[in-house]
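I hope you will forgive my troubling you with a question about protein structure. I am sending you one protein, given as its amino acid sequence and as whole-number tokens for its backbone shapes. Thank you for your consideration; the sequence and its tokens are set out here:
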Amino acid sequence: MRETHMRGDKQRPVYMIGIAAELAGVHPQTLRIYERKQLVEPQRTEGNTRLYSEADIERLRLIQELTQDEGINLAGVVRILEFENERDRLLDELEELREELRALHRAQIEAELLAARATALVPMQDARVRRFFE
């Protein structure tokens, strides 16, 4: 529950463009370019002011690392981020499938136990049977 709460906090838009740019180590105009290229999508207030979340800042830092340190152009960054999103989606799907498999396995074990109980020999209390073996 705590992780979900923290994840929710990371998504909460709180930083105006100047602060976001400073935190990410870029110029505010760069953030506008990244938005036009759909690398980042800040939330907007009713007055149309851009607000960035902590998750947005992390993404901006990654973009900066890829472009500045790795020399990747923005088109390449777009592809990398698409691949990362797809990887995350597939990992989530894999975890759901694993949980489903665990549930099916538990159900199978339970069914086998019930079947074993149903076919177990039950001692008879009939007096005629006892006399036969005495």
User: Anything to note?
Assistant: The chain is about 70% helix and 5% strand. Helices lie at 2-11, 17-24, 28-36, 54-69, 74-119, 127-133. Confidence is low (pLDDT under 50) at residues 1-5. The radius of gyration is 30 Å.
